Amino acid sequence: MYVVAVTIFVKPQFIEPFKQATLENASNTRQEPMNVRFDVLQAEEDPARFLLYEAYHSKEGFTHHQTTAHYLKWKNAVTDWIAQPRQGVKHHSIFFGE
User: Fold this and answer.
1) What torsion do the CA atoms of 52, 53, 56, 62 make, to the nearest 10 degrees?
2) Do 57 and 32 meet the contact criterion of CB atoms below 8 Å apart?
3) Between the CA of residue 87 and those of 5, 7, 17, 51, what are the distances in Å?
4) Is residue 23 part of a domain?
5) Considering the domain boundaries, does residue 60 fall inside one?
6) CATH number, domain containing residue 61
7) Mean pLDDT, each 10-residue run in order, the chain (98 residues)
């Protein structure tokens, strides 16, 4: 598995539209054949901090995801809502799932 964990800090006034746009992107991403999971998490103590946890069968699956219409729509929509650059960390799984 190829896993990407992206931390995003959102400007407080854009939290709700960010959530809506991100949930739409996540729902569409889960339909991609190379996607295993796409979780959207909101920090308990800082509601403006989000973690996107994405797992793909391969790095190519993630690369393909970044070319999809739903990802590009999401990226364009949220760009001005983000308080600082996204922090993406890419991983190769060692122990994943069942």
Assistant:
1) 30
2) no
3) 8, 5, 20, 9
4) yes
5) yes
6) 3.30.70.100
7) 98 98 98 98 98 98 98 98 97 88
Domains of the chain: total: 1
User: What's the whole-model pTM score?
Assistant: 0.94
- Strand order of the β-sheet with 87-92 is 35-42, 49-56, 2-9, 87-92
Do 90 and 4 form a contact (C-beta atoms < 8 A)? yes
Domain around 23: 2-92
Domain presence at residue 71:
yes
For residues 35 and 56, the answer to whether their CB atoms sit within 8 Å is: yes
Closest CA to 71 of 35, 23, 29, 41: 29
